[in-house]
Amino acid sequence: MEEFPPLEPNIQDGTSYAHAHALARRIDMTFYPVTVLVAAVLLGLMGARSAPVLVGVLAALVAAVVALKLLTGRERPDGSSGDSFPSGHAAVAAYLAASLCLALGAAASGGRAPLPLPAALAAAAAAASGVWAAGVCWSRVGLRRHYASDVAAGAALGASAALIAFRAASGGPGG
Predict the structure, then answer these.
(1) Closest of 95, 64, 88, 65 to residue 140, by C-alpha
(2) Mean pLDDT over residues 20-49, rounded?
(3) Pick from 98, 72, 95: which is nearest to 157 by CA?
(4) Residue 10 maps to a domain
């Protein structure tokens, strides 16, 4: 079992656990509203015909996360339950961020996305979604709801699901 450092100030950089915890809580509070916003933008970029694929793959991702949680029964670092592995927040955040990055890339390059975007705007939005997803992952560990390995596994599942969804929704190879 992984151990966490003591709840003491970090003398080197002047931050404390309390400040990090407060930041993690703020990031955690953004999860649901930003999830809805990113999903809406993603559906706008990909078009209404891709909605069943994107939602279907997301549902399959959530089902896989729940199944793995039941199979592994790993206790959370804070001891609150036995459903730590993998992180569902990390999986969904990575799925949405990676899907949005793929859709923005297609839109900026004149690919199959129905809405063309300037490359700089697409790059900025992709970077913002990546920063948000990384923040969600960090907050799960910072709040002691997950071990780093839970978050890494969830993010890997989410990013993989995004590749599958994008290929299927855009009619790419395998879709």
Answers:
(1) 88
(2) 82
(3) 95
(4) no
Written as one letter, the residue type at 96 is L
Is residue 157 within 8 Å of residue 65, measured between CB atoms?
yes
Q: Which residues contact 151 (CB under 8 A, 6 or more apart)?
A: 86, 87, 90, 137, 140, 141
Q: What is the DSSP code (8-state) at residue 138?
A: H
The answer to the question of residue 74 being in a domain is no
One-letter identity of residue 24: A
CB 163 within 8 A of CB 95: no
Indicate the average pLDDT of the chain. 83
Burial class (CB in 10 A: 0-12, 13-18, 19+), 80: exposed
Q: Which of 12-16, 64-68, 130-134 has the lowest mean pLDDT?
A: 12-16
Confidence class for position 169, pLDDT limits 50, 70, 90:
confident
Which residue shows structure tokens 């909605």?
Answer: 51
Q: Please, are residues 17 and 7 in contact by the beta-carbon 8 Å criterion?
A: yes
Number of domains making up the chain:
1
